[in-house]
Design goal:
Layout (H helix, E strand, L loop, with lengths): L5 E2 L5 E4 L2 E4 H23 L6 H24 L2 H4 L18 H19 L3 H19 L1 H6 L13 E3 L9 E3 L2 H23 L5 H20 L6 E2 L2 E2 H23 L22 H38 L1
Parallel strand pairs: 1-4
Antiparallel strand pairs: 2-3, 4-5, 6-7
Length: 321
């Protein structure tokens, strides 16, 4: 008898009349909003305009969703195109199945298009949104919990996930909650990137590369625990190989970029006036400017007073004589 475990939802869909409200979709939507909100705050802090992150996200998010689905369908094609399967299911995104590798790759292409249209340097934009993407992944993983999917090996630890569904070849039982492991790992990655960015003033895409590298480390060991069907190469799951290759590319980029382009971008968005991105000055900056302006005015006033005093003295001397 299990005394403690993580229960699975009995269903992941609520119906508002004829309209299905899917928890998986809501997790993704909430994650996108968090990523845009945090990215906007970081972009403003870097000297950009408010709203730029959201404008570019209009391009990045749809591209990312398409890319994530394409990666999943291509790497798990037998789920949709093998005998007895219905290829139409490949379009049913609400049933789960988004590959983060495809989402990041095609999402980056969409972001590049949006950034190019705005004259924004893509590396600076990527640095601003990197922690938000990690938080979005942490939230999105809970969609897998609602769908009772992507769990790990059988276990009897107190935090085991209780799978109750037998659909799609599932075997009810207690398993490692890999969705939870990855969610917590992504939160840690986001906090790591925020800390490192503040500590080392990362620029030119290095904050984004750090996010990618750190995520790959966690995805490697979490992927190793999963028991869902996957393609294997030399004994390792395909996603493990992907994580390893992407990790090496991200670390290489950090090292090479730091040597060739140290520091941060001086300007991240053309046309933004001095001061904050919304056109207002910070309190300290405004105070300094006021002091700088007041100082010469005070000097001029003093000089004018001395000249007037000298004239009065000269006039008095003339009358006496």
């Amino acid at each position: 008898m299990e005394l403690a475990y993580i229960p699975s939802p009995s269903h992941g869909v609520l119906h508002l009349g004829p309209i299905p409200l899917r928890a998986y979709a809501f997790c993704i939507i909430i994650g996108v909003f968090v990523a845009v909100w945090l990215g906007n705050k970081r972009w403003i802090a870097r000297g950009g305009r408010s709203g730029t992150v959201a404008d570019i996200a209009v391009w990045a998010v749809p591209f990312g969703l398409v890319g994530g689905r394409l990666y999943h369908v291509i790497t798990d094609y037998e789920l949709y195109f093998s005998p007895g399967r219905d290829w139409v299911d490949a379009f049913k995104v609400w049933q789960g199945g988004l590959g983060i590798w495809g989402a990041i790759a095609l999402g980056a292409l969409g972001a590049w298009i949006g950034a190019r249209r705005r004259g924004i340097p893509m590396p600076a934009y990527a640095d601003a949104v990197a922690p938000g993407i990690a938080f979005a992944q942490a939230i999105g993983r809970w969609g897998n919990w609602f769908n009772q999917e992507l769990y790990g090996r059988e276990t009897h630890v107190p935090w085991a996930l209780h799978i109750t569904s037998s659909e799609g070849g599932r075997v009810p039982g207690y398993y490692h909650p890999t969705f939870l492991y990855e969610s917590l790992w992504c939160i840690g990655v986001a906090l790591l990137v925020i800390w490192a960015d503040r500590r080392f003033k990362l620029g030119h895409g290095r904050a984004f590369a750090l996010y990618v590298a750190a995520y790959c480390v966690g995805r490697g060991w979490i992927e190793y625990m999963r028991v869902d069907d996957a393609h294997h190469i030399l004994g390792l799951r395909l996603n493990d190989w992907t994580a390893l290759i992407v990790f090496l590319l991200a670390v290489t980029y950090i090292v090479v970029s730091a040597k060739k382009r140290p520091g941060r971008e001086a300007v991240v968005e053309p046309g933004v006036p001095d001061g904050s991105a919304d056109g207002t000055e910070g309190a300290d900056e405004a105070e300094h400017k006021a002091e700088d302006k007041a100082e010469p005015e005070a000097v001029e006033a003093t000089e004018a007073g001395e000249v007037a005093e000298a004239k009065d003295e000269a006039g008095s001397a003339t009358k006496k004589s």
